[in-house]
Amino acid sequence: MTTVLTSRERTFKLLRRELPDRMGLFDHYWPETIPDYWAKQGYPVDTPPEAYFGYDLRFGGGWIDTTPHRGTEVLVEETAEHRLVRHGNGALMRYWKHKSGTPEHVDFDCVTPERWETHYKAPLLGLDPERVNIDGTRENIAKAHGEGAFTFFGALFVFELLRSTLGDVAMMENFALEPEWIHDFCRTYTDFYLRHLDFLFDHAGQPDGAFIYEDLGYNKGLFCSPRMLNELIMPYYRELFAYFHNRGMPVILHSCGNVTDAVPLMIEAGIDCLQPMEAKAGCDVLALARQYGDKIAFMGNLDVRIFEAGDPDAIEAEVAGKMDALKALGAAYFFHTDHSVSPNVTLKAYQHGIDVYRAHCAY
After folding, report:
1. Strand order in 297-299's β-sheet?
2. How far apart are the C-alpha atoms of 164 and 87, rounded to whole Å?
């Protein structure tokens, strides 16, 4: 007889590549999906999705303020359609008011090693307790553990911080032209994280795991070669992930795009689970599970375009087909769309996917 586990117990087992009572359940959403769309379709807006759908994971704390000059954001322009903001890392970003997605990268100030040294590095070298949310983290962990759920620390890391500080063009140019600057940037932020993580966990308590959000790819592949990733980025992944592992915290790595060619590097760096494996970018969870199922767990790869189309038979084929195949492979797996639930997915379509999951999730 299979023992029914708490979500926390189940998630730990899956992240250790053990097969518990059932597959895990989790998801992410575009900000407007629930309040602007599903609320009109019968969703109880005062109920968080983790409670409504019974997700196994909960956000425990994180999103440390990594801005060099925190609290100095300036609203440059505002219209009915957008807000143009200059951030404390020198980046000028255009945010859309009526749609989600990546903000437009308008301008960047930190585009040379000299500018980094003279204007942005110094504020990151010490401990600043105001950058972390101790009370909120403590409350999140206590609430989740009271419900038997697995809590995670969430954060961006060096690749995303490089993109948001230098911009994509200067970042990629300087991967080739100024690798020592890239190393210095990554070294500075890795030390920054370790310093603030110690402070946060010592004062607020420790979440169960870490969820690191880094977009290493796009729909055609990686932003740079695996060799360049291994030389410039992976040393800092290894260090951060080892820090979490030394605290008993497994690591889930989010990376958009087709990141198939980087999966061996991610595994060597120490990830325990890969998410979300975008089907629409060419990732294939079954192929990955056949090759790496003895090394990591998997979360995602359910093609959100199928959910958006709303055909219940197609949704069932997508969810049941992949889950049954993954069970046959003995892979540790969490239900999750292949990025986030968009407003184009109706509540009815998504609920059908959850119903299919529940009919096929038992190991």
Report:
1. 24-25, 333-335, 297-299, 273-275, 251-254, 209-213, 150-156, 57-62
2. 10
Burial of 353 (0-12, 13-18, 19+ CB in 10 A): buried
User: To which H or E segment does residue 186 belong?
Assistant: helix 179-204
- Measured CA to CA, the distance from residue 250 to residue 11 in angstroms comes to 10
Strand-strand pairing, 91-96 and 82-86: antiparallel
Segment 107-147, tens digit of pLDDT: 999 999 999 999 999 999 999 999 999 999 999 999 999 99
**pTM, two decimal places:** 0.96
The answer to whether 257 and 281 are in contact (CB under 8 A) is: yes
Q: Is 290 among the domain residues? A: yes
In angstroms, the CA 26 to CA 75 distance is 35
Q: Which two tokens stand for residue 5?
A: 């586990």
230 found inside a domain:
yes
83, with CB counted inside 10 A (0-12, 13-18, 19+), is: middle
The enclosing domain of 248 has a CATH number of 3.20.20.210
Please state, in angstroms and as integers, the Cα–Cα distance from residue 297 to each residue in 2, 221, 255, following that order.
Answer: 21, 21, 14
Residue 124 covered by a domain: yes
Structure tokens at 209: 């795991």
